[in-house]
Amino acid sequence: MGPLIGAIDEGTSSARFILFKAGTTEVVASHQQSLSQICPQEGWVEQDPMEILSVVNTCIEKTIDKLISIGGSVNDIAAVGVTNQRESTLVWEKSTGKPLYNSIVWLDVRTSTTVDQLLEKIPNKTKNKNYLKPLCGLPISPYFSALKLRWLIDNVQNVKKAIAANDCLFGTVDSWLIWNLTGGVNNGLHLTDVTNASRTMLMNIDTLKWDPVLLHFFEVTPSVLPKIKSSSEVYGNIETGSLRGVPIAGCVGDQQSALLGQQCLERGQAKATYGTGCFLLYNTGTIKVSSSHGLITTVAYQLGPKSPPIYALEGSVAIAGAALNWLRDNMTVLPSFGEAQKIAEEAELQESGEVYFVPAFSGLYAPYWQQEARGVIIGISEDTQACHIVRATLDAVCFQTRDILEAMIKDYGSHLASIQVDGGMTANSLLMQLQADLAGVTVAKASMAESTALGAAMVAGAAIGLWDLSQHLEIACEIWTPKLSDDERDIRYSKWKLAVEKAMGWDVL
User: Fold this and answer.
1) By the number of CB atoms within 10 A of the CB, which of 190, 288, 433, 443 ranks highest?
2) What is the CA radius of gyration of the chain?
3) What whole-number distance in Å separates Cα of residue 509 and Cα of residue 506?
4) pLDDT on residue 509
């Protein structure tokens, strides 16, 4: 069977473990399990760190059972890579391994008040959200990990006590998993990679080290921080379960991992992942492009400690698939996620005027960075039906993606002719056609669905010499091309921008 490369893919709604035949897209065995979310109050989203760890371990063991059942062996597995939901923030006791609080998930907005407090610290009272951008590439926003860590320090007594006792470790989900898998309280490795570190607001985007100015600004003690490593190197061996002795040789945040898995390894290539949110990454190579149009600068990957970092421009949409979940669970106008296409297609057959939906449930991310925005549905008439709301929800995903593409063109100076896409929502072919129509780009969906996990396998395999990243993997794609005229596309986009204006500032009225 071997050699095989394993990928731990820990997302917001589920985790999976996938075994790839080294150097290929061939999946030999896999197992996936869902993860629960905890919402103590409006805008708060948490997960149980112990559940995350348990589910990942279950996925590993179930996958190995499947491998053995088809004649394989654990000895066929040469290395494991890790990819994870980014920005989600965990703190735990070094001495016991016990979490000091639930994981605060990336889309949680409880830190809005923390943002306000930090903006007051900025010299000359400018309240400039981009004050730290030259150092870390990121605006001051509830999205990023440093804000979540600051909230934990300010509001959870056990965290304060553990830091005072030098018994607190901070990390994103990758750090939590790697620490536990490599021994935990018995000398587990406390580390992260440059891609995840670049989402904390604490790493210098040029030096790839924790920055003393940023640490001082957020009042974070260096002792809680993991060691920053490249995305592709042997960190250490797994010490638990069936994978005991197998090296962990790669780590990369999920969106950057999808960029790798989509084979966007050349400067100027871009991908969009449609899941709970939607994330667009544009590979800018070794050139760090600073955005003046609401995007963020992030590390795309670093293929070994002696290799230069590869950078990307990124635009993040908080609410994509989550809006369909909202229609299903809160509004009960959508029986199931899978029926969205069928119901939205009914809107084509009926007259209702145009309905626009801005799903700013917890503010707007790129390119607006407006935490005070709230959702609006506009253009409703007495003829509006549920199908029009569902269609407007799909349109909203596409318009938000166009917002980011427009900003990328302004920042980078060249028009994108096509984007690679992946994620659960790409099963909706109407959405893909709408994306092509409303953004005016060709949309290419790879037939290989596991691009995020593939990226983690690629960096792990490369670290041990079993994956040649210079050899482009040919992956068959399904293609959608624009059918709308430029005039029709632009008229609809201008109406979307009017709807976004209506959504702004609602939480401060």
Assistant:
1) 443
2) 22
3) 5
4) 53
Q: What are phi and psi of 40, to 5 degrees?
A: -60, -30
Contact 250, 79 (CB under 8 A): yes
pLDDT at residue 506, rounded to an integer: 81
Q: Which of 56, 78, 54 has the alpha carbon at shortest distance from 457?
A: 78
Both tokens assigned to 508: 């401060």
- What Å distances lie between residue 14 and 47, 56, 169, 508, CA to CA? 11, 9, 24, 35
Q: What is the pLDDT of residue 188?
A: 96
Mean of pLDDT over the chain: 92
Contact 462, 407 (CB under 8 A): no
Rounded Cα–Cα distance for residues 499 and 493 (Å): 10
What's the pLDDT score for residue 475? 78
- CA 235, distance to chain mean position in Å, is 23
Give residue 367's pLDDT.
87
Separation CA 497–CA 402 (nearest Å): 11
Residue type, 67: L
In angstroms, the CA 474 to CA 446 distance is 10
For the chain, list residues with pLDDT below 70. Answer: 349-353, 507-509
3-state secondary structure of 494: helix
Please name the residues in contact with 448: beta carbons below 8 A apart, sequence gap of 6 or more. Answer: 25, 261, 454, 475, 476
Phi, then psi, of 386 in degrees rounded to 5: -55, -35
Q: Strand runs (DSSP E) across 318-454, as ranges?
A: 356-358, 376-378, 418-422, 442-446
pLDDT digits (tens, 9 = 90+) for 356-397: 999 998 888 888 888 889 999 999 998 899 999 999 999 999
Cβ(120)–Cβ(64) under 8 Å?
no
CA separation for the pair 488, 482 (Å, rounded): 12
Cis? peptide before 139, omega within 30° of 0: no
Q: Do the bridges between strand 4-10 and strand 77-84 make them parallel or antiparallel, or are there none, so unpaired?
A: parallel
Residues 227/194, Cβ–Cβ less than 8 Å: no
DSSP per position, 246-303: PEEEEEEEHHHHHHHHTT--STT-EEEEESSSEEEEEEEET--PPPSSS-EEEEEE-S
> What residues pair up with 30 in beta bridges, in sequence order?
18
What type of residue is 17?
Answer: F
Q: What are phi and psi of 115, to 5 degrees?
A: -60, -45
What are phi and psi for residue 7, nearest 5 degrees? Answer: -130, 120
- Say whether 405 sits in a helix, a strand or coil: helix
Q: Name the pTM for this structure.
A: 0.88
For residue 109, what pLDDT is reported? 87
